[in-house]
Amino acid sequence: MTPITTNEDATTARYALERAMLAMPTMQNCPEWQLFAGESLLATIPSANYELNVEWGKLIFAWWDDQRSQSWRVIAYQIDDAELLLQVTRGLGRELATITLRNEVKWRERLLIEDLELPERRRLYPQTLA
After folding, report:
1. Whole-prediction pTM
2. Do 65 and 50 touch, CB atoms closer than 8 A?
3. Number of Cβ atoms within 10 Å of the Cβ of 10
4. CA 27, CA 38: separation in Å to the nearest integer?
């Protein structure tokens, strides 16, 4: 994971995460992200219901739905092809967690490819380079 320790790190992380989230395809009529803590699904978040902000040199990930809202300070991140891993704190740093924002479309593609036999994966590999 890439740590976030300075204001510059927070700004760089914000733009890297936003760029990754915009680059990942979403379901046509339902651009949503699945929010996980471990393997537990916490919420499904429409793209209009979250934000990344840099406040006082800290990167803040906030999300909301009709029942609740939460804000987390992001202290490290990792961008994967189908998900974003965020190491976060809350409550003056007392609560430390790793949350995952998963793009369901890319995640399903990944699972389908992993289930294929090696010759079939090799045949599809050039398409991933395009």
Report:
1. 0.77
2. no
3. 23
4. 23
* Block residue for tokens 């699945």: 34
In terms of DSSP H, where are the helices of the chain? 7-23, 104-115, 118-129
Nearest to 77 by CA among 22, 1, 16: 1
CA–chain centroid gap for 56, Å, is 22
Specify burial of residue 100 (Cβ count, 10 A radius: 0-12, 13-18, 19+): buried
* Residues 62-105 pLDDT 10s: 999 888 999 999 999 999 888 899 999 988 778 899 999 988 77
Tell me how far apart the alpha carbons of residues 25 and 108 are, in angstroms, rounded to a whole number.
Answer: 12
Report the alpha-carbon distance of residue 75 to residue 50 in Å, rounded: 17
Distance CA 52, CA 63 (A): 9
